[in-house]
User: What shape does this take?
Amino acid sequence: MLTEREVLSRQKAGVKLGQQTGQAAATLRIGVLSSFGIEMMAPFLRERFHHLGDSISLYFGPFGQITQEMLNPDSGLYRFQPDLVLAVVAAEDLLAPLLELTVSGGPEAEALLAARVDELRNGVNALLNARPGCTCYLAALSQGQIPAPNILDTVAPLRGQCAFQHFREQVRKLPAGFSRLVLIDWDWHTAGDGASQYHDDRLWYLARMRLNARGMAELSRLLARHVAAFRESAKKVIVADLDNTLWGGVVGEAGLAGITLGQDGVGRAFKDFQRALLAYRETGVLLALCSKNNPADAWEVFDRHPEMALKRNHFAAARINWTDKAQNIREMAEELNLGLDSFVFLDDNPVERDWVRSALPQVAVPELPADPAERPRFLRELELFDKIRLTGEDRLRAEAYAAQAQRAGLRAGSNSLEDFLASLEQVITIDPVDDATLGRAAQMCQRTNQFNLTTRRYTIADLERLRQNPQWELHAVAVRDRYGDNGIVGLAMLHFEGRQAEIDTLLLSCRVLGRKVEDALLSHLSQRAAARGVARLYGLYAPTAKNSQVADFYPSRGFQPAGEGRFAVDLVANFIPPAPGDPSEVSAHA
Amino acid sequence: MRERIKNVMAELWGLPVQQIPDNASPDVLAQWDSIAHLQLLLALEMEFEVQFPSEEMGKLLSLDTLENHLAARVATA
Assistant: This one.
């Protein structure tokens, strides 16, 4: 809440701005309609919008005539030609007759309430239709001086507190029908301070004002905040530190069991901090990590600590290293293809904060409170991620970025391939080539160059013929991971001749290289061959200009050179088991 | 006292303090309209840490009356 001094200094700054700027210089025309006297708000509005980079010109409609001004095409509001209309509605004004009732409301009271909300809706509708570029902000105040003292009112239907709640509920639903109506939920935002902080009975009786100077300043602040959100100036990425930020203590020293994180005490504050980050993620904010740590120590916490609300896959980018954090953030901005001005950096260490501030002035660096118990609220109340409404895209954004990161970038942060693969949760499916996959199999034969042992360019007709031949088996491999379905990404062809079999073709798409898919496939082929009584399995390698990366494929997997690009393994003695420690789930079908 | 009041007026209305005459009132100063009057009273309440009674607020319409009122209030405080 603003102190009296802050209120006064904003007022003075606003007065100065009002003197400096003539109407001609205005970048934004704001029409203010209110159910009570509100002209004293002018300097506060000027001061706040100056911070948004706007110089404003103002029109105040006659108080108590909100809908009249909106409905009448000749009203002062329309002559003013506003870009933005602020409508301030106090329930006490709109529902005045209700408050004079001495007995419970009933049908008449309900009808009055519905009629007032309808009037508002019609007014807003007329305004937005008449002025296509105009946005309307509706502030509804229902925490006033009435009926708080009267405890009997709590249960009286549609009277007193009950009527106010009903009004609030209905007004909150209004924006659903309009893309350019934004609700400023005054009661919600000021509940923590209390209505009495924003009201002065003397001003009400002398000037029909339901807000005091602090109230005007607060309403101006809220309007500017909503306008900024409507303009989609929200930050997009939170970069968080680990030790003493996501958990208490230094994991590299205290170890997994020694860090502070959990259900009790300060550990719970760290967990709530993580939850607040997750809540932002659900609104489309991307999460990223930047920590000076050993990657293995850090990732172990994500993978193994039972109290971690945040998991690896929640992050769109990560830098766990001993490099300078500004450099790391710069890299992540490039990786995510987002400007540094959409980044927010959270770190408990004031030295790191200062460094990032000075090296990257575009990055927002909030002053995280020193006490971890104060941080969850601090994070939730940061006004950097305001959004007026969430789109489906917002909800999916973090997932989409995380998928990209997990597949490509996070691998650099994983301390082992096993960790990386485990985090992918990949499922490899191997099935005989069928009508549905024949086209894709032929396409891969034609196009695959790098991970292709023999580069035999079979056509769809060739494959169709071989598929019918009982001496041949054609296996298509599909890979799915937690981030989506990669579809058919590999092909293997087995050619049987008596007690021998030859891997005529083995190829994989670049998309799944380095994920042990080839091992799963080879294991499957050896099992198929063994099942058909094959004693000796041959692998072929035919070098090309592009496939040198697979030159050692068979020798490195226990096959012996057998001359002329052939490698052999004795299946009786050397049954090839599934790749050791392979975390992938493989489902194979003959 | 008089200078402190003038300073509050000058800051609030964005005027050099020399332009606040000793006979300042809504008739003499264009800035001193009804809204500005309330703003002035609220600013003076902060400056002098007093609260004006509602019945007086509409009557304190000159630098002289303001000074007299505030002097009495501050003296008894």
Summary: Chain A has three domains: 4-230, 237-380, 415-588. The CA atoms of residues 557 and 576 of chain A lie 9 Å apart. The mean pLDDT of chain A is 86. The longest strand of chain A covers residues 484-497.
